[in-house]
Each structure stands twice: as structure tokens, then as C-alpha cells.
Amino acid sequence: MKIQKSPKPAIIVIFGITGDLSKRKLLPALYHLIKSDLLHENTRILGVTRQNITKKDLFDNVDLCVNEEKNICDPLAVKKMQKITQMHTMDMSIDSEYEKLSNLINVIEDEQNVCMERIFYLSIPPQAFDQIVEYIGKNKLNIGCQHEIAGSNLVIEKPFGFDLDSGKELIKKTGKYFNENQIYRIDHYLAKETVQDILQFRYANPIFAPIWNNKYVDNILIQATEEIGIENRINFYDKTGALRDFVQSHLLQLLTLVTMELPEKLNSSQIHHNKQQLFDQIQPIPKSKVEKRAIRGQYEGYKDQVENPLSFTETYAELELFIANHRWNKVPMRLITGKAMGKKRTDITLQFRTDKNGEYNRLTFRIQPNEGIELRLKVKKPGFAQTSQTALMDFDYEKTFDNHGHPDAYERVILDAIKGDHMLFATSQEVIAGWKIIQPVLDVWSKNSDGIKIYPIGSDGPN
Length: 463
Ligand code: BG6
Description:
Blueprint: E1 10-15, H1 20-35, E2 44-49, H2 55-60, H3 75-84, E3 85-89, H4 97-112, E4 117-122, H5 129-138, E5 152-157, H6 164-177, E6 183-186, H7 193-204, E7 217-225, H8 234-259, H9 268-281, E8 282-283, H10 290-293, E9 294-299, H11 302-305, E10 316-323, E11 333-338, E12 345-353, E13 360-368, E14 372-380, E15 388-396, H12 397-400, H13 409-419, E16 425-426, H14 428-447, E17 453-455
Parallel strand pairs: 1-2, 1-4, 2-3, 4-5, 5-6, 7-11, 9-17
Antiparallel strand pairs: 6-16, 7-12, 8-10, 9-10, 10-11, 12-13, 13-14, 14-15
């Protein structure tokens, strides 16, 4: 797939450049953008860290080429990346340090002799967001290049808050210095090629439009299971759980893409407008129904792993939701996510009613892995009898597109943030709507461990 080069020079300031997310996702994505020559030649990377870490230390400890074929690096691209990267040690909790940061950015811009789009990428634990944004704002780093012809942007990662109240508070605090157009809230699922294809598929194949409703669709299942457990994210995960980590963001976003009204044009404002309408129509589960319509589980051995024998954080969550509109009235939407399960798979299945035998046609978007789309149809079984059997129509990305691969989600979000394209980011209203939907379940689940089911590692989750 051909992606457009960023037309703008940018200075990408990464807070927490030595952190896990930066090393696993961000730096490999930047490497690949550099290798593919998709960044403006004046782009610079400024790594902000508390520790006194040199550029050499950083590059010695990161595997830039994890996503490359056979993990092989292009030495020229590595060299180029090292050349445009600079480290800056600072205590992010001290106001006056931001003045020094501002001076440094001005110096870099003077050296390049261009105004650069400023991208403040907060790759740090969410508890630190508020303070850093406050100091960025107080030191006028939210204003943009010293000659004021390039903007300043804030890029933040989910989770956006911890619940409805803290989500609103975070939005208020970031909104004090950055307007909505300057903020990029990453939900990296939105930037996956196969997720982008959901709307494109619906748009480009109007043959499905007449049956995309409760007259034909019996139910929708969205599942995102992982083989990995919580790895070394113990502190974060034990306070977070699957509902906050996955359902509030990734799964609700997927649900809206499948069920929202198709806009006339697939542009950012129309998509966000229709998506918001749908978000507002998803019915939160009433507290009295949580026991029946929300299931939680925890994998065996989790309590030992987090060294908290009393932990009842869920590593598996399953919700049944309904959408209160004419199109989807009474169609159950099941959302499932879990860690340490049998296999990694994210897919979305629309199950269509057939007239007889309680059998179904199914349309499945295989988001990952083994990316593709499959349609299960009934066909006549060859022979003399008039009987039918299910046949699979299978589109496979790798085979169809000749194994050319597609850009990693993080490459796409970095480029879009520089270009100023908000289509694949979550708006503040979407974030709030997501919290509203799951808040009653959070409230009930936070009270006690009633009903939590322990499931074996590598299984399909709780019975
Ligand atoms: C993150 C979650 O948002 O997505 C992680 O915090 C999860 O818990 C990850 O493992 C999964 O992302 P992907 O792209 O590997 O499916």
C-alpha cells in the first residue's frame, strides 16, 4: 500500500523514550518510516528521559527491526535515525525544566532553519499526564514554533482516565492548553489496516447495505483474545483490568465502526460525527443486569504473578450490549476479550439469520492475525439429494496483495499526527461515551469478587 510522505518537518519530542511502549512500538515504527523515506528530511527526534541515558545506550537497548522481514535492519536507515535523534535528560516534574526544553527546541529549529511541527508524544504512565501537560502549557510549548508558522500537538495513549470522572477531568486539563484539533488520542486499533477496512468495505460494497440491520442480523460478536498474559505490566494491569484496558477503547471503537450509519463521505469529520451518534445509542448495562450480561474471569496463577493474593482484577471480560436505534434494536452485541487464552485472534462476526433450520450465514472480518474477510454461505451439496452445506468464501490479505504487508498502526498514527489528520484518533466525546457505557459494570465489579471465574492458561476463558 502506498502511503503519502509527510509534507511537514517535525520535531517529535518523546517523553519516556526509554519506556516499554517506546521501545516496542514507537521507535521501530519511526525506524520504518525513515527507512521508507516517509518523513520530511528536516524531521528530528528528541528523546526526553529522567535518567542520564546516552543515545548509544538507547540504541543498544532497542530492537528497531522487530517488524522487518527476518528481523534484518538496513544499516543506512539505522544510521540516519541515530543522526536525527537527540537525547535530553530532565526531571519532568519540575516546571523550570520546561523552559530549558523550550530553548533546546528553538535551537534545533534554528539549526534546521525551518519552523517545525512540534509533536509532544507522552509515552509515559497516565498518572503523569496532567502535570506534564500543565508545564508544557505554562511554558508556552503548546503554541508552536517560535515564528508561529507551525503548530504544537499533543499525542497521548490510552487509557484516557480511569473511569468516567477521571476521563472527564483529563479532558478538561488537557483542554486548558490544547484545543481538540491539537490533541491526538491514540487507539492503535483504529490505525490497523484491517480495522480501516471495515468502513471501506461497507462503503465499497453496497450489496450488503440492505441486510446490515436487525431484520437480517441475528447477533454480532467481537472478540479479541491474546495468548500473552500481562507480562511485566504488573502495576499498571492490576489497577486496570480487561474492561478498562480493552473494552472501553478498542472493542467499543470496533463496535461503532461495524454498526454506525455510513457517512456520505469517508472523511474525518463525517466519520466522527456518525460514530458519536452511535456511541450515544449504545445502552450501558443497568447495574441490576450486570451479573447476567457481564462475565469476568482471571487466569490461573495471576494472583501469584502480581503478588496480590486478594486481587480480583479481571483478565477476561465479556459484555452483552444493545444499541437503541431503529437499525439494531434487539440485536445482541457480544464483546469478548481475554489474556493468556488459547490463541491470539481479533475478529468481528455478523451472524445472519437464514430462514430454516436455525442455521446462519456468517461474515467475519479477521482483524488479526491471518488478516482477511470470510463469508460462510450455503451451497448445494453435489449429488442427487437436494441438501446444502456451508462453503467458505475466503479473502486473505497476504495472498491477494502479494505479501506486500501493510504499515504498522504506529507508523500511521505518527504520520497522521504530523499531517494533522484526526480520522484515526479518538475524540474527547468518544472517550467520555466509552466510559459512560462501561461505568455501571466498573461500579458493580469494583465492590467485590463475586462471580469472577478462574480459567486455565491457554483455554477459551471461563465456561
Ligand atoms: C493494548 C493493551 O492497548 O493493546 C494491551 O493495553 C494489549 O494489554 C495490546 O496487549 C494488544 O495490541 P495488539 O496490537 O497486539 O493486538
